[in-house]
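Support request, please re-run this one:
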Amino acid sequence: TLGRVLSRLRLKPLVLIGFLLRCATGLMFAFVSERCSYWRLPFPALIIHIIGVGLTLLPIQVTVVRDADNRDQGLVGAIYNTSLQLGAPFGIAILNVVAISTTTNGYSIQSDSVDLMRGYRNAFFGIIALGLVGFVIALIFLPWDRSSRPSKESIQECEAVVDMEVDAAIATNTVKD
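Re-run finished. Output below.
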């Protein structure tokens, strides 16, 4: 659905909304407890996360490839996909360190679920922090979309090219006759 309407929407607001939705997901997961029903917090959080990921990854990829020169688009797309493949495990490793270091006993057989949940909760707060960092980076560095309305200069250039092509076509047809 997003692929069909993306050309009519501004990309930067979508990315910013996506990062905020991903932060909201981390917050929802941070409040999951032993007595929490799957349908009350985790399931809505998963749905919101999917929407947030869709609103960030696709518009960022479109922006990155769109702003590159035609000869560099393949390289830029490859670098973008490589950074996605390397960034996710790096982020998970950081959050794993946060979870383990804030669990009282570390991960051991003797750890009870309350102790483990404290570490997981801190990792989810880390997800919120990483999402806010992504939000700020996108806010600062991601360009605002250019207006889809053509400028007067570009209209005049197009009209001049069309006039030249029409004149060339007329001259070609006149010579043949």
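The helical segments are 2-5, 11-30, 42-66, 73-101, 113-141, 152-176. The CA atoms of residues 26 and 127 lie 6 Å apart.
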